[in-house]
Amino acid sequence: MSTRAAPTGVAGAPTDEEIEVSLYAARKKIYPRAVTGLFAKWRWALVWLTQLVFYGLPWLVWNGRQAVLFDLEARRFYIFGLVLYPQDFIYLTGLLVVSALSLFLFTAIAGRLWCGYACPQTVYTEIYLWMEKLFEGDRSARMRLDQEPWSLRKFARKAGKQVAWILFGLWTGFTFAGYFTPIRELGAAVLAWNLGPWQTFWIFFYGFATYGNAGYMREQVCKYMCPYARFQSAMFDKDTMIVTYDSARGEPRGARKRSADPKALGLGHCIDCTLCVQVCPTGIDIRNGLQYECIGCGACADVCDEVMEKMGYPKGLVKYSTQNGMANGWTRAQMIRRAFRPRVLVYSAILLTIVAALGVSLWLRVPLKVDVIRDRGALARMVEMGRIENVYRVQFMNASESERVLEVSVEGVPGIALASEPTVDLRPTEVRSVPVRVQVPPGLEPGSHPIVMRFRTPDGAIDVREKTTFVVPR
User: Fold this and answer.
1) What pTM does this model have?
2) 288-305 tens-digit pLDDT
3) In sequence order, what are the beta bridge partners of 410?
4) Domains of the chain
5) How far is CA 343 from the centre of its chain?
6) What is each CA distance from 96 to 101, 164, 224, 351, 353, in whole angstroms?
7) Angle at the Cα of 24 from the Cα atoms of 22 and 26, rounded to 5 degrees
8) Tens digits of residue pLDDT in 13-47
9) What is the DSSP string of 337-371?
10) d(CA 152, CA 160)
11) Bridge-partner residues for 453, per DSSP?
12) What distance in Å separates the CA atoms of residue 34 and residue 29, rounded to the nearest whole number?
């Protein structure tokens, strides 16, 4: 957005010249410098772990089918040995609640560790930066290349990077679609150029999102699009572990020779090399204090430790610490003890309660769903020997990958008996509707009588009871 103003001349008369004033600062491209160190190793370890899980899970086989598959067409979700249906939506709700509470808990304890180490935006940005470095060189080489005029060499490097980025994005989109369509069938369809419209859309959409977010938008996603950066301050307090700069030790900053005595020069330990800014993926200066753009990746701590080691100074000028710890000079053990404060204990208690409830619910979950519906076409009818018969439509859903043989019985009224087949055979994951006829002897008082239908396996492992009513006409 911009506004234009028409300036006046010397005598106050308006001129034809217009000045355009931008209300937003133009984005300055960030060239993150490569860094090594403890936190960089942790970051890459999680890159490998998360991507092995994401790209590997669809290829695992379980009971002759894909181990993790969200089959929307069949309305069945397979997660290893667990088969879930739309009726089990409560488990997805519980998973989302657990994820949110986990984020609150980890943020209250140690800041934006999720953002710095395991967030997909961070992970894919690391991968895309690695590919960029592979084709265009390190930070200085990339900056020089961007400033050079176009040449065959520059075009080849830029084109090679783009091809790698696009292929990786398409592979990511293909893997994402493979969680909803069996990935081996999807691969065969891709090779045969026989993709359906929805598979094509999601492969290209997710691939384009990966390409755009990790290749170009990068820190813009973290700074402007992600809401987490905005409300993190509500979860931080002075005992939250964050990346901090020890200003008491580092200031006043200034350049000096390695052999110089900083005390004699009246300087702190910060040599103002700006490497902490150069390695930051969001381009901030950690020496300015906590900023919402900081994703807590620890890259600045790694590079600062390298500089301190070369200068012969103690490490930890930039480190993970707490505001109270820095102000009071606490040790690491004191800060860890302070982590167990009321808000953390409350988050932990709620989280453990919900996780335990979900675990117990899954453990006690009966892998059979039954719905008994009265046949409204014939509420009641008289059959041989004056007996009264009601017909029901029973909907079975076998929520397991094993065959089930169910014994059907009915109780609740004297003399009530089953007039249809006493057993029902269900194939694995079968949804089936079966008519069930129930009869009572003559003489029963007219009206609606509550009864119970019982469905159980011969071994007694499954025993489901469903209430319904038996109608005797007047």
Assistant:
1) 0.84
2) 988 888 999 999 999 999
3) 453
4) 31-365 (no CATH), 368-472 (2.60.40.10)
5) 24
6) 9, 34, 23, 12, 14
7) 95
8) 555 667 766 666 667 889 999 999 999 999 999 99
9) HHTS-HHHHHHHHHHHHHHHHHHHHHHH--SEEEE
10) 12
11) 410, 466
12) 16
